[in-house]
Amino acid sequence: MLNPRLLALLLGFLVASITSIFLWFTNQTPNVVFVGFISAFFATGVLTFLVLDYFIFEEVNKIYRTLQQLKFKGLNISKKQLYKEANPLKKLNDELYYYADKKEREINNLKKAEQFRREFLADVSHELKTPIFAVQGYIHTLIDGAVNDEKVRDNFLAKAAKSLDGLDAIVRDLVALSQMESGEIKMNLQPINLEQILNEVIDGLEKKANEKKVELKILKNNGSAPIIVKADQQRMVQVFTNLLENAIKYGKEGGKVLINFEEEKYMWKISVIDNGPGIANEHLNRIFERFYRIEKSRSKDMGGTGLGLAIVKHIIQGHKSKIQVTSQIDKGTTFSFKLEKAQI
Ligand SMILES: Nc1ncnc2c1ncn2[C@@H]1O[C@H](COP(=O)(O)OP(=O)(O)O)[C@@H](O)[C@H]1O
Ligand SMILES: [Mg+2]
Predict the structure, then answer these.
(1) Atom in ligand 1 nearest the alpha carbon of residue 303
(2) Which of 31, 61, 103, 175 has the fewest CB atoms within 10 Å distance of its CB?
(3) What are phi and psi of 144, to 5 degrees?
């Protein structure tokens, strides 16, 4: 390893040796040869060292200091370290490269976040605009005289109310989503009986299921043991409502929806399985995005905000778990996630 001190020593030694040999051949006395050797050694050594120190290390250090003033905080070189390094310029180069690489990745992430924010804002305004324009249209038509026709009046009022309900649903979902993202709402994790919650959700969805003649069924792999998990009760209601509502809405008429509980060593695996039309691969990892719908108009007609699965994903993440989806066209779709077992 050629560090600057060693380099100075070597060079000093080399020059001193050549000088001594030269003196020796010119028949000088050993004393003169010795003095020549020593002086050449020190002169060359010290000079080399000073040159290296002042012209390279000092310069490199200056560059380093300038970089630090530019708030290149990640750089981590000390003068001591530079001395040890065989090639301080290479070391500085490596550090700079590493630093630039890190910064570039940071910038890319920021750009992505910025783009996401812009798209999200555009989506939100679009989603809000639609129901607002609709309500605006109905009300103005009523004011302009339609209010006198009783049939038209009732029809328009009902439609305006429906649009406003949709608007309300979107805003509520958006608030929930943003609160979860900002960490404002913490998950209230407690031992809860999941089957009990599920049954309540199923009761609430009975009307919708009956309308489409969909059969909802619960299956457990362990018979009668209660399903106790560590989870947020309110959030689990939201999760089941979203998943079951989707399975009913997007499933086929007269279809079946199965809620399957599988007991594992430390976890309960929960799956919501439908035998609906399925989801094509290209949509599969996008359905958790906000406002992503496979069939825009159909989902909206059915009162969907397009935020349901985004919320479900957040809630499951808040339980330190992950939601997974598998699907086969014409066979059906399965959403599943795991929750930690608990004891009441
Ligand atoms: N079980 C399912 N079968 C088929 N498609 C589904 C299913 N669940 C969700 N989807 C698709 O995923 C999209 C996103 O769902 P979601 O986030 O709940 O929004 P929304 O229900 O409000 O439209 C839906 O619009 C639908 O196209
Ligand atoms: Mg939904």
Answers:
(1) 22
(2) 31
(3) -75, 5
